[in-house]
Amino acid sequence: MHAIRILRLFLNSQIKSQRQYPVSFILELLSSTIILGFYFLAFALVLQRFGEIGGWTIGEVAFIWGITELSFGSMDMLFSGFDYDTFGPMVRKGQFDQILLRPVNVTIQVLGSRFVLRRLGRMMEGLIIIIYGISILNIDWTVGKLLYIPILIISQVLFFGSLFIIGATTTFWTMERLEILNIFTYGGSEIMSYPMHIFPRPIRLIFTFLVPAIFMSYFPAVYILDKPDPLNAPDFVSFLAPLVAVIMLWLALQFWHFGIRNYQSSGS
Amino acid sequence: MNAFLATIRISFQRQLTYRAANLSGLATNLMFGFFRATVLQTLYNESTVVNGLTIQGAITYAGISQAVIGYLSFFHWYELMHTVYDGQVGSDLLKPQNFFVYWLGVDTGRALGSFLVRSAPLFFIYVLFYDVVYPQSLLTWLCFLLSLIFAHLISFAWRFMVNLAAFWTPNALGIGRFVFGLSWTFSGFYLPLDLFPDWLAHFSRATPFGAGFYIPVQIFLGSLDIRGLILSLCLQLFWILALIMIGQLILSLGIQKLVIQGG
Amino acid sequence: MTPIIHVSNLNKTYKVYKNHKGYFGLLRNLINRHFKLIHAVNGISFDIQPGELVGYIGPNGAGKSTTIKMLTGLLVPTTGDLLVDGQIPWKERKDYVKKIGAVFGQRSTLWWDLPISDSFSLLKHIYEIPEETHSANLNLFREILELDPFMEVPVRALSLGQRMRADLCAAFLHNPKLVFLDEPTIGLDVVAKQRIREFIQFINTEKHTTILLTTHDIIDIAKLCERVMVIDLGKILFDGSLETLLTTFGGRRILSVEFAEFYPAPILEVAEIIRREGHTVVYSFERKQVSASKLIRQLSENYRISDLEVRDQPIEDTIREIYEKQLLYNHPYDKENPSS
Q1: pTM (2 decimals)?
Q2: Chosen from C35, C67, C76 to mutate, greatest number of chain A CBs within 10 A
Q3: Pick from A267, B80, B149: which is nearest to C72 by CA?
């Protein structure tokens, strides 16, 4: 398909220009791995004093923490074009008009407009933490669980991607930086790194019904790690992650297209 | 002096105009405050004190951490770097005002504005939800305020230095990110340093990052006696002077480089 | 012959919301909204035939960029008919933009960090340009626009003139039927301007590409366009040849006289003194009202003259007067039918 081919070309040229400075690239990669890793390390060191958090051990926390990091990092790399901080200025500078003037699907162009390889750092960090967690845990592996893990990761990527798309769409209306969206993207990834049953009810409700993060991390982990669930949810909710992700992506894209149509009728 | 105050005032007013950004920053930080408080509460569980830090102290700690994000420009500050890259720095250096003093004025105005519109309200709202501990005496309050001012100066001094990297490399942003990352780790921002293994806690506290964040919190929580108070404030002062001196050195080297190499 | 651009009674109206100030302003903005209607484009109509090179001028805020945005499919009109090469621009975007090209003086159409040769390759794939067409055009443009010295340089490192040439190459690479040029000579020196004007003329002559040129440099129009449209306050006030515009509203001449000595008040009845410098006095007069020779005779009867010069008022000044004094509003509307 024409659009996919163009996307591949865009991504290639992105990677090419980022590879021009290999030393600084490697350094930045390592630096982000280390800095992000410190955050987990700090938590792990503190957890040593207490032994467990809400009944979850460090290995179990590492599992959900690591998967969230891996997914968020992957999303951040793939959906860099929709990053609020770069898409907003792009619209303001009139470069979005340039996208509309090219005979290629708009969403594909935005996806291909930026591909931050540096995010591999976060992905690596996540992977290391997952491996650490799994290595100290005694998970009762089944085929189902093994198959579910990649599905879960992809679902999380799409979930975070939807949030990014929604964030980018808001820049069509407002020039000011809306940090409030960070509550859902970065807040979402933060809260997904902990077993969600520890949070007070109002917060849990927000992240169940407004931004369904609980289906993306906590319930799937309850299934994989065979944890007791104090929230007493039915078993099937653990498998809702892919469905929730797809629905969110669909909703995000509807909003995105609405935003583009509105941009064309009201001008910049 | 007038110029300095004027710079502060202009920057302060500018900060106040970012209404939506200030308010949503407040909301986000508050939400994260709740997260952090929850994690600490869950960790403490039945215990009331761990390594000298009470659960109320820990919760207070989390609230202050979130409140000072705006005030200390905790997550990123690359304004100076940008002026180097777009050439604006050239005309800034020609201004009659001392370059360092100018940027100090700009950042102080921003900090004051942020404190007024984001930090203070955030803390006031936070204490509606949680039991928080307060300084017990007037002396402690005064030391806290002084320490908070020192914290701003320390923060500005190292942020200024880091931005100067732009004189030498087009990838100063990467360096900046790394140093900011170090500041989050060693300041005690994520989790109270009291809960860290002792060796790590002592090391972190000695760094400018720890001095610029953890010390004010310690004072607020009343963890220090008179001797501790004086030593801590001195430690902060030490870092202020050291960072400013190194910063001046780097600045003059940078200006030399700029003048020799041009554009 | 069917026009390539057909515009009939085109309107674009915006709602501009008043923004409340202060911290309670945010709340007020949600509930208590005041707005103003702005008629950026207020009922314009025109036809452009294939192969024409038309100028589109007007003061800032007149509605030029709004018109161009509608013609390029970036903006949806409020009411009116708009057909470009038989299509409604905004409706069939992907299909439509294949046929057009655009150059914007204010920003590049190319990728900021890529060497321009890479940009040109990307465009080949984006517009699905056949290999022979792409290389033929690229070689031709490289030569005429002298792009070889900086083919491997990214846009961010190019000078304004270089960037403009690269953008021009890119705009015509896919043999578009219609190209919009928005301020293509802005900020350039006279040599660069001339080079670009030559290129535009060349393309229009050789490839019969229809070109719509928006510019503030009236010399661009004088050198390139047989037809010019003037827009102001959303309405097209003039559509005809530049010459007609100038003879109707221009027609002022400048008489510059260097007197032998200083005269305090060498006043003429039908001429305006616009400048004095030492012994030199510069007059401006209407060609229709009085002839230069009559003025010279009048002056020489009363004063001693060392030297003098007569010339036409620069076109820029005529245009400026038309904008400032809204001359097109005061004179009866003079529309010429653009012939095919």
Answers
A1: 0.86
A2: C76
A3: A267
